[in-house]
Structures are given as structure tokens and as C-alpha cells.
Amino acid sequence: MKNFTLRKTYHPYISPFDPCPPVREKTYYTPAQLYLGYQPQNLEQFSPKEALKAGTLWKVFYDPYYGPNEKRRGPYE
Amino acid sequence: MSNKQLPQEFYTMMEELQTLDFVLVELTLYLDTHPDDYNAITQFNEFSHARRILKNQFEEKFGPLQQFGNSYSDYPWNWNDPPWPWQI
Amino acid sequence: MWIYEKKLQYPVRVSECNPRLAKYLIEQYGGADGELAAALRYLNQRYTIPDKVIGLLTDIGTEEFAHLEMIATMIYKLTKDATPEMLKAAGIEDHYVNHDNALFYQNASGVPFTASYIQAKGDPITDLYEDIAAEEKARATYQWIIDMSDDPDLNDGLRFLREREIVHSQRFREAVEMLKEERDRKKIF
Ligand SMILES: [Fe+2]
């Protein structure tokens, strides 16, 4: 399976004089294309129906993004 | 648009076509950078065949998907019949 | 030439009449990293790039037009039959007095589309790196639109579009590798 993570976090400096409530942990996104290199042949695929819903035929690229107010849905998580 | 309502079958068949075509889009981009992948080309040709059959079935029921002669026409000319993709 | 197909790439749905979300989405219609810019960028670069990656630029450029139509469909559905009061409440009355319900190639702040969004340097590696960056920027834009949206059906379509940027980025990275390859030497997988 995947030997990389799709999210990374960091902890920014927080000043006592920052007026907005601090977000102590920030997240950024590191999708599969940063790691895969030239795509190897015969990687595992979704079924056609799942592929359309996922937005990709190959499981390795699947990386659904949900907003802060959304419940994570998606049957392939 | 008129008051003509689309039957559920339209949505089902349309999504089947979108499904096959999505696999074909993915394989097309993949083969553009992997021209020697025999398995992928075999899969591509199988899906290409299946989409041709489904296209004909869809068009017999719901009219042409393409024009400039890529689809047949009924009489009268039915390419202009709604709904268009953003209306359905 | 191009042949139009009377079908969306993906079944687009939105949950409710919501002109405010349309205002955000216009960023991906006529913005710097939007689908129009993407389609025009890739198709335009084809004339000055080695033959072996022209097919890829043609196909991704063509898919981007399908994405443009999806965005237009979302905007159309979010604003169809919205009353002037609703448009006012959504803060897009300034769009309305100029364009009524018409779509316009502009970004979310109302800046009209310009060709300067589309780089074309004529150097194949430079142009492909531009394309990789463009895909990552479009991916990020979809993230920020999803963050602002509370429409589950709309977000379903936006997630599909974001995922496509991931795959496009992958293919452009592979195109760079194809151009780096030494002549007559086989690829090593
Ligand atoms: Fe793209």
C-alpha cells in the first residue's frame, strides 16, 4: 500500500499579542504525485463505478478533500 | 425547456456512459505517457468497444450525443432538442 | 477539430439555490488557475513542444474544457431563477446589474479573464513545470472553495475536480521524465 502520508502538520509560533484565537496545528497537503515517480504498470484499480466517484481509476491517487463543516463521506475511505 | 420530463432510465444510462468514458479518459492520459503497457491497451480497447455499444443504445432512446455526422439524425432534426447537459 | 458531446464528464448536482457559492466558483471559471486558463494554456503549448508529449497536452487540454462545462453547470444551477433579492443578499448585485444571470469569464473578485494568466515560454521543460504548478494551484483553489461551501452535492463534484488535478499533475511530471530521457535508451520502471 501507500508508503507515504497525504497530510502533514506543523506548529507555528504563537505570540501573546495575536488577536485571533490561535490555530496551534496547521495542516498542508502532500498528494501521491509527489511520491509516485513514473507510475508503475498494473497498479490496483477501482471498479469503473468507484473510479468515477473517486475521480481516478487508480487507488494510489485517491485523496478525497472534505471541508471543515463536512462529515467525511465517501465509501472508499 | 419544455415540460417534457426525462425518465429515470435517461439518468441511469447517462451515468453508465459517464462511467465507461471516465475509465477511457484515465487510460488515455495514462497511455500518453505509457505507450508500451500492453494490458492497459487491451483494457482500453475493451472499454472502447463497450462504450460504442452503449452509445448506440443511448442514442436510439434519447437522440444524438454528437453531431457533425458522428451520430445519425431522426426526422425532424433532433440535435437541438433539449435538455442540454447543464439543464438535466 | 473538436467534436462536442451532449454529456457532462461527471453527474453534477447542487443541493440548493445559492448564488453566494456561484460567486466563489467563478474563480475556477475565469480565474488565473481556472479551467479556461488550463485548457487554453495546454492547447497553446502544443505547437512548440516535442512530438511525444503533444498527445498528452491535447488530451488534458480537452478534458479541461469538460471541467469548464461542469463549473458552468454548477454556477447555472446555483443561480437559476434566483431573485434580485437573493442575488443582493449574496453580495453579487454588482454582477447582476452588468450581466443579469449571464456567466462571465472573471475571477471571484470580478477581475476579467486575461491572456496573461497563460504562460508560454517555448522552452519545453519550463512550460511543463508551469503546467505542474498550474495543476497544484487549481487543486489548492478547489480545497479553499470546498472549505467555504456547505453544499454536500456541490462538494461531491468539486472533490472530483480536485482529484483530476492530482492525476493531471502526475501526467505532466511523467512528461518531464519523457523529455529528460536520453535518446535511444529504454525507460527503467
Ligand atoms: Fe487539470
TrEMBL record, chain A:
Q: Which InterPro entries match?
A: Spore_coat_CotJA (IPR020256)
Q: Which UniProt keywords apply?
A: Capsid protein, Virion
Full protein name: Spore coat protein JA
- Which organism was this protein described from? Evansella vedderi
Organism classification: Bacteria, Bacillati, Bacillota, Bacilli, Bacillales
From TrEMBL, chain B:
- Identify the keywords attached in UniProt to this record, alphabetized: Capsid protein, Virion
Q: Name the domain of life this protein comes from.
A: Bacteria
Classification via InterPro entries: CotJB_dom, Spore_coat_assembly_CotJB
Which parts of the sequence belong to the Protein CotJB domain? 12-87
What protein am I looking at? Spore coat protein JB
Organism listed in the record = Evansella vedderi
From TrEMBL, chain C:
Is Phosphoprotein among this UniProt entry's keywords?
no
Pfam families attached to this UniProt entry: Mn_catalase
- What organism is listed for this UniProt entry? Evansella vedderi
Entry protein name: Spore coat protein JC
User: Which residues fall in a coiled-coil region?
Assistant: none
State the similarity comment.
Belongs to the manganese catalase family.
Q: Which UniProt keywords apply?
A: Capsid protein, Virion
Question: Do the record's keywords include Iron-sulfur?
Answer: no
